[in-house]
Amino acid sequence: MLNCLSMADTTIRKQTLAPWMGLLLTALGALSNGLPFIGFPAAPVPWISLLLSLTGFVVVLIGLWKAFRPSTIYKGKISACIAAALSLLFMASSIAFFWGARHIPAESANAPQIGQRVPDFMLPDSAGHSLSLTQLLSGSSAGKKPPKALLLVFYRGYW
Predict the structure, then answer these.
(1) Does one domain contain both 87 and 137?
(2) Does the model's pTM come out above 0.70?
(3) Within this chain, do residues 83 and 19 fall inside the same structural domain, yes or no?
(4) In this structure, are residues 57 and 87 in contact, taking their beta carbons and an 8 Å threshold?
């Protein structure tokens, strides 16, 4: 009877939630990059994202260790590997965001301020003719009334 019980205990399939909890944490780490859009201060967001992702990945690694430990039969080795791969993907995206957020250039002291007069410049219009800022503001470019205001948009990105 004792031998029969010990054999039954060795064939019990165990399942752990560690890979899936780790995947959830790494996904939350990647999704935490959207916190500034709901009013959260932007400064700690890269650190929160990185911390959640790394914690989640450690939990996934613990789950993988439990899955491939030879002392038990584990039901879910394939799903644990899938969770680990997805977790690694989320962690890599969080690290990439963290790296990019750390390299945002500081605000330039020479940048024009709101209400400051902009130096004159020339750019082509939609027809390809050169148009200066003073021509645009005086209204002499096409015989139109001068605009009340001018909005300049500076793109910092590249594409």
Answers:
(1) no
(2) no
(3) yes
(4) yes
Contact 102, 60 (CB under 8 A): no
* pLDDT tens digits, 82-118: 888 888 888 888 888 778 776 766 777 777 777 787 7
pLDDT digits 0-9 by tens, 10-55: 555 566 788 888 888 888 888 887 888 888 887 888 888 888 888 9
Long-range contacts from 71-78, C-beta under 8 angstroms, 24+ separation: 72/14, 73/10, 73/11, 73/12, 73/13, 73/14, 74/13, 74/14, 74/15, 74/16, 75/13, 75/14, 75/15, 76/15, 76/16, 76/19
In 3D, which of 46, 154, 63, 29 has the Cα closest to residue 100?
A: 46
Question: Quick check: is 77 in a domain?
Answer: yes
| Beta-strand pair 122-124/73-74 | unpaired
Q: How many Å apart are CA 44 and CA 111, to the nearest integer?
A: 26
Asked if residue 107 is part of any domain, the answer here is no
For residue 58, give the DSSP letter. H
- The H or E element spanning position 77 is helix 77-102
Burial classification of residue 51, based on how many CB atoms lie within 10 Å of its CB (0-12 exposed, 13-18 middle, 19 or more buried): middle
- Write phi, then psi, for 72 (nearest 5 degrees): -130, 160
Same domain as 121, residue 96:
no
